[in-house]
């Protein structure tokens, strides 16, 4: 049963089970601190395809294939797939998932996609729409850079606040009943825009949305950061994380001791030259599927909040002088 | 309660009520056969904004505002908004809905968006996630043409199979209980790709997906086209509609007497020079909100299927030699 708690949080009383998950990454992700936890990494940015866009589709396909294999599932046993990515018209999802023949609910949530897809998949299970769904998200450094910023060959200098788009994707399979971590609460965020216009400072653009969703969640559930083993944000990076502490601090919410940002977990900022950290739908998707859910399976984490954040800009909106609206969706997951 | 019927159809036993709806259109839409049924039309393609992209955001904002006004609702009474459009990174939705402060579930379903957003909004109501949700979709001829095809100033010749992207948007407000038409069944479609590569023939690319979803729906529910007053497809246009009849004919399903395509309703093909018909998320969204739901309110239609179809391509995927995958989502609506 699903019940609204407080103003904007959904409580899932049974709680769909995370049955399986898989993370796929690239070379830099393999060389990062979580490298060994990925299910599959490829040192070639093309993943054997002719273009980077096709490579990103291959990442989604591989992530779904591996998540199904790990749970010994046939694709016919998945009733709906929720997916999105950063590419224009979300072609990584459309082409990557084309062959599965599973009804698709296409999403656009920028880098918040993994939380959005997992939330909708969980709601479909809890409400009886389906017995098993998959949630997918991906990004690719090479497709994102050339689409959002500059041709890679141009070799543009990156600013200190810039983040490095993760090459990777994650897939979570959620089902009714069974063993595994359970999705307990969901808070969908609203668009928050404090007027940041610097497209090289996504963390700052997304932090206000992150603060808003977290604040609403804590209010709705009457909990505090101390009640959780981990509060994982999507890809705020160093700059965005500090801003998040500052914004929540104004409301006397002290996140820091329990907070980790996926953008700061995926790469080693000291040695991997990623400036303010990682970003992209694939950042939170891979950190969730390679690391966080493994830590839950190993009993190291029991009660976590996973909140992915998205910057809802496009090169066109920036060129037209618009600021960068942010959004953040939150999922509360507990060990069985 | 939501129950799976057959392989892929969801039956909503209570059935969320369509409380309000509004359609916003441009000059060509105003001049078309449904012109008088729109809630608002503007003869200026900019809708008073500085760019066409901002104009499309203004369309979404206006559609939501009017739908709320018509039902005397405050924006705070809408718990979730489901929205999408055709622009890169769905900026029409992000910027158009920014000021409402309503939690947003961002979607990408290409021209299938209106059915996708209405489906998810209905599922949220039926499952108890919310008491009231809004579903929105839009497109704009000028933003779509320059993004997908050629600069407008280039004056490129259009092929006979080409369709004319609708300038407009629709918003449907769905709620628990009350008076109004009810959403009874939902069928989410899977990606279907029969290898069409002509980006000027979207109808042909989407027809196989339309056939697949309709066939599944009829099988799942044990109904036939004759059981409905109207079967409205999104924007197959003339070419796609004929292909749809042919494809369903192979399975002895004869759609023609009850079928109308939104792409053939919005404009007068004889006088408005739109070649194979209208297209775009705004096509099915405006025909639903300006015409179909009004006809239901007037007692002229009692039992309808609304199925929007999407072509999941991007200029990049076409440039890389990819074919055009299609998708179609279906909503069954009955008068109270």
TrEMBL record, chains A, B:
<dbReference type="GO" id="GO:0016746">
    <property type="term" value="F:acyltransferase activity"/>
</dbReference>
<dbReference type="InterPro" id="IPR038369">
    <property type="entry name" value="SpoVAD_sf"/>
</dbReference>
<dbReference type="InterPro" id="IPR010894">
    <property type="entry name" value="SpoVAD"/>
</dbReference>
<dbReference type="InterPro" id="IPR016039">
    <property type="entry name" value="Thiolase-like"/>
</dbReference>
<protein>
    <submittedName>
        <fullName>Stage V sporulation protein AD</fullName>
    </submittedName>
</protein>
<dbReference type="Pfam" id="PF07451">
    <property type="entry name" value="SpoVAD"/>
</dbReference>
């Amino acid at each position: 049963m699903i019940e609204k708690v407080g103003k904007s949080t959904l409580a899932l009383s049974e709680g769909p089970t995370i049955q399986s998950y898989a993370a796929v990454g690239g070379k830099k992700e393999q060389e990062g601190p979580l490298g060994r936890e990925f299910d599959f990494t490829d040192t070639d940015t093309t993943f054997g395809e002719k273009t980077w866009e096709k490579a990103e589709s291959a990442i989604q396909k591989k992530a779904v294939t591996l998540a199904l294999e790990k749970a010994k599932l046939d694709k016919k046993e998945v009733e709906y797939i929720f997916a999105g990515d950063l590419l224009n018209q979300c072609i990584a999802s459309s082409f990557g998932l084309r062959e599965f023949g599973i009804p698709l609910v296409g999403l656009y949530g920028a880098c918040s996609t993994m939380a959005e897809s997992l939330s909708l998949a969980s709601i479909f299970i809890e409400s009886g729409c389906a017995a098993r769904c998959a949630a997918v998200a991906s990004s690719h450094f090479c497709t994102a850079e050339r689409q959002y910023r500059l041709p890679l060959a141009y070799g543009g200098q990156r600013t200190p606040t810039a983040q490095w788009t993760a090459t990777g994707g994650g897939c979570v399979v959620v089902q009714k009943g069974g063993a595994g971590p359970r999705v307990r609460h969901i808070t969908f965020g609203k668009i928050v825009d404090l007027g940041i216009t610097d497209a090289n400072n996504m963390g700052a653009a997304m932090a206000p949305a992150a603060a808003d969703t977290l604040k609403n969640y804590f209010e709705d559930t009457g909990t505090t950061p101390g009640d959780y083993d981990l509060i994982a944000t999507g890809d705020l990076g160093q700059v965005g994380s500090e801003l998040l502490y500052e914004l929540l601090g104004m409301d006397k919410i002290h996140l820091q001791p329990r907070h980790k940002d996926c953008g700061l977990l995926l790469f080693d900022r000291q040695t991997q030259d990623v400036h303010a950290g990682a970003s992209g739908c694939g950042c939170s998707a891979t950190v969730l599927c390679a690391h966080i859910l493994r830590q839950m399976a190993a009993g190291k984490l029991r009660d976590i909040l996973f909140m992915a954040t998205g910057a809802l800009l496009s090169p066109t909106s920036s060129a037209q002088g618009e600021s960068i609206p942010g959004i953040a969706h939150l999922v509360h997951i507990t060990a069985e």
